[in-house]
Description:
Elements: E1 18-22, E2 25-34, E3 37-42, H1 48-52, H2 65-78
Antiparallel strand pairs: 1-2, 2-3
Amino acid sequence: MSISRFGIVCVFFRAAVALHVDNGQLMGASDIIIGDTFYGLAFVDETCEDVFGVCDTSSFTFNDPVSATFASYALLGQAFMSTGIYYFNNQE
C-alpha cells in the first residue's frame, strides 16, 4: 500500500501600484486593488458631470458609507503612501 501526499500551495501576489507623478505631484495611480477589482485613479480639473456624464450618488461604484470607507482605506494604503522617493501622506 502506498500513501500519497498532496499539498496545495496557494500563492497570493499583489501587483505593484503604478503611481503617476509629475514634478513630484501625484497625478494618479493605476492597479489599485479594492476588493478583487483593479481600479485607476486620476486627479482631473473637471466637473463631476464632465467626467462621469451623470453626477448622481447611485452612479458611483462606492455609493454607500461602508464601501466608500473600504475604498478610501485602499487608497490610503496603496496610492497615498510615502515611498521613500515621494511623500504624499505627510502633513507638510
